[in-house]
Amino acid sequence: MKKIHALILPFPAQGHVIPLMKLSNQLSEHGFKITFVNTEYNHDKVVASLPKESNSKENNIHLVSIPDGREPGANRRDFAKVFDSILSSMPSYLEVLIREINESSDDRITCVIADEHMGWAVRVAKKMKIPVAGFWTAAAGLRTVHLHLEQMIETGILNSDGLPTKQQMIHLSPEMPAMNTDHFAWNCTGDSIVQQSMFRYISSNARDIKDADWYLINSVYELEKSTYPLNPNLLPVGPLLATEQTRLRGNFLAEDSTCLSWLDQQPARSVIYLAFGSTTIFDKNQFHELALGLELTGQPFLWVVRPSLIDEQNDAYPDGFQARVANRSRIVSWAPQQKVLAHPSIACFVTHCGWNSTMEGVAMGVPFLCWAYFCDQFLNQSYICDVWKVGLQLNKNDGGIISKEEFITKVKTLLVDKMIRARALEFKEISTKSVSEGGSSKINLSNFIESVKSK
Ligand code: UDX
């Protein structure tokens, strides 16, 4: 059988590197050799965060890097410059990398799997006559928006710069949750330069991706059935999960696994787990209010407080908070989230509703308490609360914050809501079946692998 050497390219953000690394691990279990390409900036973080026993070449997965076109010390949160530099410089860096690999070994790259947020890589692969797959890291519902930008401009929903002609809720299909045009990614930035640069970037990728040979998504067919007619040839292969053997996880921060032994000591279904992904930032008032709410619930909790979670680091916690909750809490910088969600002591998941967190929570059957911040997180929140009905939504008060009273009420309601727990378990089963023998995602992944091998 022909040996497949896949080059896998995520968009340079944590919520993209993790799912593509999970895909890499699955493909390597099917005999693929993987060259995993991060930007130099992220590669250094991934390598620095590896567990001690791992190195950058594990399990037939080889971590490599290319520049993102920015100076090493440049601000990667200057998004307009980042998008422009990815588009203008990364295609040639990728081409050089592929040529170098192909010229230096018998192990030529036989397939490229590109994050659809790096759709330009399809152009590079096609130029080099390499079969290429697109991979979408978020909901199929969101992909529908990106595929239909031209139609939305033609029908006057958006102007030619991607700005909504008026703020409105749109239904791209009758069964899909309504989406607020102000929550489209490029409209969430609050800065017109970033908005224009991001819209240019997304539109350009959406055009390039049309030439791919396959399309994969980290989702489950049964969770978003109505979106597939609008996403032709899209193969759901999720939920992508790490296995016990997975050592390369793609984390930018080292996991603090000590929280798992702490969880072992907590009663079943008692712990509130709070994690807000890799980019969410809290203002100090909201952070205080949440801490007070957590304290007043009286429940044990595990809280991921990344170094960059709060906009002001000093005195972030209320006075004496950590001492008062010390005997029933753990606060970590980065948790082994999938293992945490699978732990029997977890009662609920307070989340910003990033798509990876959504898929992981569904896969583990954990009820959600939703705290969407921006972009697709509102769509994911609608799926969780209104469509699948596996969680509750936290609402802001007139002062624009989620109050401690709102937090306590929703936690208490969720912990005793038998209907939501039962549905969460039903969805866990749907999700487990999809990746088991004969399940939709398992079949799609096998078909993809066979198709790649036969190209
Ligand atoms: C971003 C966007 O916010 C999200 O809306 C989009 O769908 C993907 O890109 P992010 O904010 O990082 O992602 O959230 P999410 O998609 O949930 O991904 C976070 C990942 O980090 C998950 O796989 C989660 O398991 C992992 N994680 C998070 C940890 O492993 N440990 C932690 O402590 C926190």
Radius of gyration equals 22 Å
CATH architectural designation of the largest domain? 3-Layer(aba) Sandwich
Largest sheet: 8 strands, mixed
Q: Say which CATH homologous superfamily of the largest domain is assigned.
A: Glycogen Phosphorylase B
> How many β-strands, per DSSP?
16
Mean pLDDT: 95
What is the C-level CATH assignment of the largest domain?
Answer: Alpha Beta
Q: What is the CATH fold-level name of the largest domain? A: Rossmann fold
| Total helical segments | 16
Keywords: Transferase
Domain Glycosyltransferase N-terminal: 4-129
GO molecular function: quercetin 3-O-glucosyltransferase activity; quercetin 7-O-glucosyltransferase activity
Family: Belongs to the UDP-glycosyltransferase family.
Walk me through what this model shows.
- The protein has 455 residues and is of the alpha/beta class.
- It folds into two domains: 5-241 and 436-454, Rossmann fold (3-Layer(aba) Sandwich); 258-432, Glycogen Phosphorylase B (Rossmann fold), CATH 3.40.50.2000.
- Strand 11, helix 9 and strand 12 form a beta-alpha-beta unit.
- The chain has an eight-stranded mixed beta sheet with strand order 3-4-2-1-5-6-9-10. The protein has a six-stranded parallel beta sheet with strand order 13-12-11-14-15-16, with helices on both faces.
- Helix 3 (79-104) packs parallel to helix 7 and helix 9 (284-297) packs across helix 14.
- The protein is globular and about 60 Å long.
- The chain is built from 16 helices and 16 strands.
- Bound molecules: uridine-5'-diphosphate-xylopyranose.
- Residues 13-15, 18, 137-138, 275, 277-279, 304, 334-335, 337-338, 354-357, 360, 375-377 line the site of uridine-5'-diphosphate-xylopyranose (UDX).
- The site of uridine-5'-diphosphate-xylopyranose has 23 residues, from helix 1, helix 11, helix 12 and helix 13.
- Residues 4-129 form the Glycosyltransferase N-terminal domain.
- This is Glycosyltransferase N-terminal domain-containing protein.
- GO terms for molecular function: quercetin 3-O-glucosyltransferase activity; quercetin 7-O-glucosyltransferase activity.
- Belongs to the UDP-glycosyltransferase family.
- InterPro entries: Glyco_transf_N, UDP_glucos_trans.
